[in-house]
Every structure is written in structure tokens, then in C-alpha cells.
Amino acid sequence: MKKMISGILAASVILGASSLASAQETAKPASLPSSPLIDSSGGSISIQADQQRATVSKATYQTGWPKYSSSVNGRNRTGSFTLSYEDGGSVASVHLLEYNGSSWNEVDNIYINVTLGYVSKTKYYYMKNGYDYKLKLEVIDGDGGSAAITNY
């Protein structure tokens, strides 16, 4: 037993501490991208470990209405969706859509009527495993409006 321990110690001295540290470094999993990925709808999706976040913005009647976010996966956990708007005299809404494998259905929504300043509202929704979720953003009159969906 003493011979085996001394052999291991001798091998570690020969390899050097930096080689052992390098071996441990290569065992770590590759990191995920830290910057958002841009999709064709003009929104973005960020992936951080076990979380996804998709956004959509600048929905106006003139630029194509409504606008849709990318989808995120349900994970049998509560997720959130947020509607933000900054402009006077406008109405904005965001609709949470759920894909059950055959069709997209509205399952929740947020409406805001902005008269002055900045308004932001968030709701939480249980996102089922195996289902996809995305947002439909509508802005009636005015410029802007943005929405985000996150699964946790």
C-alpha cells in the first residue's frame, strides 16, 4: 500500500501541479453563449444554463402589427412575461401563447394604457414540460413597446 501511495505521489511530482490543474479544467462542460442570439423575427433569445429568455420590441401599427417573440421551452416550472411601454396616449398588450404540439393558443395576457411616463407589468405562468411558449406584442397608436418571456 505504501508503495502505491508513493508511486502516485511521484507521478504527481513528475506531472507537476499545472498539468493536474489542466486535466481538471478540461473536465468542465463548455460554457453557453453569453450574448443573445438574433432570430429572423427581429427579437432575440438568450440562453443561460437552465434558463431561456426571448424578447420582442418596436411593435407599431406602421412596422408590422402584431410582432411575435421567439419561443421558449416549458420546463414544469413557473416562468414570467413582461410588457413595457414608454409613450403617452397609447394602449399596448402582450399575449402569452402556448403550443401544445398542434396549435398555438392564448393562455394569458397583459394590457396597459399609457398616459404618461414608463409602465411595466409582469405576470407569472406555469410553463408545462413539452410545450413551447411565445409572445404576441400589439401596440395601438404610438411608437415602441417591448415584451420579454423567461422560463426558469
How does this structure look, described?
With 152 residues, the protein is an alpha+beta fold. The protein has 2 domains: 30 residues; 120 residues, Jelly Rolls (Sandwich), CATH 2.60.120.380. It has 2 helices and 11 strands, in the order H-H-E-E-E-E-E-E-E-E-E-E-E. Strand 2 and strand 3 form a beta hairpin. It is elongated.
Question: Which features does this protein show?
Answer:
single chain; 152 residues; alpha+beta; Jelly Rolls; 2 domains; six-stranded antiparallel beta sheet; five-stranded antiparallel beta sheet; 2 helices; 16% helix; elongated; disordered N terminus
Strand content: over 45%
Total number of strands: 11
In CATH, the topology of the largest domain is named Jelly Rolls
The figure for the number of domains is: 2
Specify the number of helices: 2
Helix and strand element order: HHEEEEEEEEEEE
**Which whole number gives the mean pLDDT?**
72
Low-confidence stretches: 1-41
Helical residues, percent: 10-25%
**Class from helix and strand fractions:** alpha+beta
The CATH class label of the largest domain is Mainly Beta
Largest sheet: 6 strands, antiparallel
Radius of gyration: 24 Å
The general outline is elongated
- From the 3D coordinates, which CATH architecture of the largest domain would you assign? Sandwich
